[in-house]
Write a structure and sequence with these properties.
The structure holds 2 protein chains of 2 kinds.
Chain A (H helix, E strand, L loop, with lengths): L11 E2 L23 H26 L13 H9 L6 E3 L5 H6 L4 H8 L9 H4 L10 H15 L14 E6 L6 H12 L4 E7 L2 E2 L2 E2 L11 H5 L3 E5 L3 H16 L5 E6 L18 H8 L3 H11 L5 H24 L18 H15 L10
Chain B lengths: L3 E5 L9 E7 L6 E2 L4 E6 L4 E5 L4 E6 L6 E3 L3 E6 L86 E2 L1 H10 L14 E2 L1 H11 L19 E2 L6 E2 L4 H16 L2 E9 L1 H12 L10 H15 L5 E4 L4 E4 L5 E3 L1 E3 L2 E3 L2 E2 L7 H17 L12 E4 L19 E5 L3 E7 L2 E15 L5 H16 L3 H5 L1
Parallel strand pairs in B: 9-10, 16-20, 20-21
Antiparallel strand pairs in B: 1-8, 2-4, 2-7, 3-6, 4-5, 6-8, 11-12, 13-23, 14-15, 16-19, 17-18, 21-23, 22-23
Classes of the chains: A alpha/beta, B alpha+beta.
């Protein structure tokens, strides 16, 4: 691997090697000190359950039950680690692959499938989870996230020094989004306005089929210095390190210290989506290399060696994962399409004349059909 | 009571319309469970394994391996309650509704099948997908409208607007290639989009009845072909066997460096042997041909030079030597060229080998060659002589290291025992993969085949 290119290992923060050995880091180890074995076991459980769900969703797509599925396979540590650094008051702006973060925010994963079946635009109310809608337009939400963070600042939710009061925004996106104008605009805007936001880039090395090496000459985290904010590279397959760097960045943002750019170096072990065939653009050797760096496998190795991952617990968790998968399958088949008029309800917080007239037009439009809305079979 | 559920071919990609069935991973009578591998299909994008959607029993496989199947058509039937109680005989009840025939797990339909009002629409439905090709045009059926005309939002006048033609780039290209003006094609796609099918249909309706090139060729001369508007071209979609042949040959020709060696020889002794065996009572039930002796000769040569019976494993950077011979024989079938092989041919005596060759050619001719017969071949013979051809430079069957071409056997003047005599002469050609077979090895193998054909008693010496 090129020692200076975008995939080099230079300066990557790592607290757990792929063989399951702990490392010390002068700056970041203190941020992971509160993770005792019970906490790590909980993270292991979450990663395994999210993966079981992910696998089931891929099957459901293959069986024609979903129009599309975007697997998070291989990115569990980046998501579960960073997600654990959030408080209930923080806000999350995901792209569309953050099923692990959704799970931590209390979104019922079984519900997510409704969106991918084409039944509705979103399957959760963002305010109930401080978890924004999935955004499929690459990078578009980086601007929404930045705007939201600035508003939180103006609302006085930042820098009071009270841990039960201050909050921040985390925005998840991929390596491909860093090539988009929106993301660069968001970085500039967040930097000059000192917005309380963490840009969390999961560099899974492919924008569909375009490798990171074709999108950047330098490590993506180096872009941060161009706009004048801290940038850090972390091993995204290391749940401890992902937690530690995100915790530091969020604490900085909440305290009024401004944005941070985190590049979590990970690997998309599955296809980009179920419509994609990665064997056409990457080698089996490369996939094998990263399979050895599986985020769950290294945590398993570490905990088992410490005698902290009893077989009974593992079986219990796997059963729980299977149960979630089965429940998701049944729920999906029972689900019905949401009324299309629902889409007018959440555009503005307060009544709005344009939305009202559009809703009225839409209702007339629906009535023009022989089978009025609601009689879908 | 058995409860039957049909499973339809899903869209395993995004907006795909069809797929080829590659391999069934279950058989009729198998007990299956949810998510167990069911069938391998090949779409325009990739090879995809479809997991089983239900727990139950496989009662019917509705499509064959190799079939091209439309998305949404039934491919398999399950009994999802094979151990349930036997049903009571049902007394006719006028109120009782017939059982719902629709499978319970098809995607929800938003539409009625038959519109009551056809109306042109200007809200061009988006055909965009995250990755790859356009969405299927065939599935979108419009909801029926009440009779009154309904205007688009903000557009109260119903003045005539002339629409540009909507069509995706590949469809535009097809139209251009067929010499068709898209604005003359009636669209059937959502939002007034002209689909590929519309263009092909239009081409068929307007196709010239006379080919320009040859008088008398007044029909498309290949099944499923489309003649261009000027009558000078026929286009036939590449699929099934032709497609696989093309892919295999390209892969082979551009990965294995081919070398071919030739040998011309007197096979009169072999012709004598064939004639004698034809009279032999033991061989009365089989067909004795020179090809049979060539097959046996090649087996002897492989036994003396086992290194020829090997494959190059590029991924693992290994040469895999095979201690069995699955002898392939290239065969013309109604659907194109295939190379079925005789498993463990090295174990057979001449009579059994003759039976196997007969079975192989009968199956190929009838199109009943089982898929397993075309897999895991180790070395191949191609009998170009049946076409009256002397020789050729055959391309290796992928995964094999050598292929022997057997030319026509002709009576020719030949120096025999010091004088020119009329003898039976043929040509052999052996192509081999130079990555693992050197010229010496290839030449020795060919020389050994020739030695047996020139003097079949060699077999006694080597046997």
């Amino acid at each position: 691997m090129d020692a200076h290119g975008p995939l080099s290992d230079n300066g990557v923060v790592r607290l757990l090697t792929h063989t399951g050995d702990r490392l010390e880091h002068p700056e970041y180890s203190p941020f992971a000190q509160d993770l005792d074995f019970a906490a790590l076991r909980a993270m292991w459980r979450e990663m395994v359950i999210v993966r079981a769900f992910d696998t089931e969703a891929t099957s459901l797509q293959r069986q024609g039950e979903l129009g599309l599925w975007v697997a998070a396979l291989g990115q569990e540590a980046a998501q579960i680690g960073s997600g654990h650094a959030l408080t209930d008051r923080d806000w999350v702006f995901p792209s569309y692959r953050e099923h692990g973060v959704a799970y931590l925010r209390g979104v019922d994963l079984a519900d997510i499938l409704r969106t991918f079946r084409g039944l509705e635009h979103s399957s959760w109310v963002p305010n109930e989870h401080n978890f924004h809608l999935y955004t499929l337009v690459i990078g578009a939400h980086t601007l929404h996230a930045t705007g939201y963070a600035m508003a939180m600042d103006w609302d006085g939710l930042v820098g009071s020094g009270r841990p039960d009061h201050d909050a921040a925004v985390i925005c998840y996106f991929g390596d491909g989004a860093t090539s988009e104008g929106d993301t660069n605009e968001a970085l500039v805007f967040a930097a000059v306005n000192n917005a309380p936001i963490v840009f969390f880039c999961q560099n899974n090395q492919y924008a569909i089929s375009e490798p990171t090496t074709r999108q950047s000459k330098v490590a993506l985290a180096q872009r941060a210095s161009g706009v004048g904010i801290p940038g850090v590279r972390v091993d995204g397959n290391d749940v401890l390190a992902s937690y530690a760097v995100t915790r530091q960045a969020l604490e900085r943002a909440r305290s009024g210290g401004g944005p941070t750019f985190i590049e979590a170096l990970t690997y998309r072990m599955a296809a980009h989506t179920t419509s994609d065939d990665p064997t056409r653009y990457r080698t089996r050797d490369e996939e094998d290399y990263w399979r050895e760096r599986d985020p769950i496998a290294r945590l398993t190795a570490y905990l088992e060696r410490a005698g902290e991952l009893p077989q009974a617990f593992q079986e219990e968790v796997r059963a729980e994962g299977k149960e979630l998968a089965t429940r998701a399958r049944i729920r999906l088949k029972e689900s019905v399409r949401a009324p299309a008029r629902d889409m007018f309800d959440h555009v503005y917080a307060e009544p709005h004349a344009t939305v009202d007239s559009e809703r009225a037009w839409y209702e007339r439009y629906e009535e023009s059909f022989v089978d009025a809305e609601g009689s879908h079979r | 009571m058995p409860i039957f559920e049909t499973f339809n071919l899903p869209d395993a990609g995004e907006g795909l319309t069809e797929a080829d069935v590659v391999t069934w991973l279950v058989r009729i009578g198998d007990t299956v469970e949810v998510n167990q591998p069911l069938v391998e299909i090949e779409t325009a994008k990739s090879l995809v394994e479809i997991p089983c959607p239900v727990d139950g029993l496989v009662t019917e496989l509705l499509v064959h391996e190799g079939d091209t199947v439309n998305v949404g058509s039934a491919i398999v039937v399950f009994d999802i309650d094979p151990n349930g109680p036997v049903p009571e005989p049902i007394v006719a009840m006028p109120e009782s509704a017939p059982p719902e025939p629709e499978p319970s797990f098809s995607m929800p339909r938003l539409d009625e099948p038959e519109p009551t009002v056809d109306e042109p629409v200007s809200d061009g439905a988006s055909g965009s997908v995250l990755v790859g090709y356009g969405v299927s045009a065939t599935e979108a059926v419009r909801r029926p409208r009440r009779v009154e005309v309904f205007s688009s939002f903000g557009e109260e006048s119903d003045a005539e607007i002339s629409h540009p033609v909507f069509a995706k780039p590949p469809v535009r290209r097809l139209a251009r290639e067929l010499g068709i003006d898209l604005s003359t094609v009636s669209p059937s796609g959502p939002g007034g989009i002209v689909t590929r099918e519309d263009v092909i249909q239009h081409a068929k309706e307007t196709e010239p009845r006379t080919l320009a090139t040859y008088a008398g060729d007044d029909m498309p001369w290949l099944e499923s072909g489309v003649v261009s508007a000027d009558g000078r071209l026929t286009r036939v979609p590449v699929k099934s066997v032709r497609k696989r042949t093309a892919e295999a040959m390209v892969r082979s020709a551009f990965t294995a460096p081919h070398v071919t060696v030739f040998h011309t020889l007197d096979v009169s002794a072999t012709m004598d042997l064939v004639a004698r065996l034809k009279q032999d009572r033991e061989f009365a039930d089989v067909k004795v041909t020179p090809l049979l002796i060539v097959a046996k000769a090649l087996l002897f040569a492989v036994r003396r030079h086992p290194e020829i019976n090997a494959t190059w494993d590029d991924e693992r950077q290994e040469i895999v030597y095979k201690h069995y011979v699955n002898l392939g024989i290239a065969a013309t079938t109604p659907r194109g060229l295939i190379v079925p092989n005789i498993k463990d041919a090295h174990r057979y005596d001449l009579h059994t080998l003759a039976q196997e060759v007969m079975q192989l050619t009968t199956d190929a001719r009838n199109g009943t060659t089982p898929p397993s017969a075309t897999q895991d071949g180790t070395i191949t013979i191609t009998n170009v002589g049946v076409f009256g051809i002397d020789t050729g430079t055959p391309i290796l069957n992928p995964g094999e290291a050598a292929i022997l071409a057997f030319g026509a056997i002709r009576q020719q003047p030949w120096v025999h025992e010091g004088v020119v005599a009329v003898r039976w002469v043929t040509q052999l050609a052996l192509s081999f993969d130079h990555r693992l077979v050197d010229g010496e090895l290839g030449s020795r193998v060919l020389a050994d085949v020739a030695a047996v054909l020139g003097d079949p008693s060699k077999a006694l010496v080597w046997g």
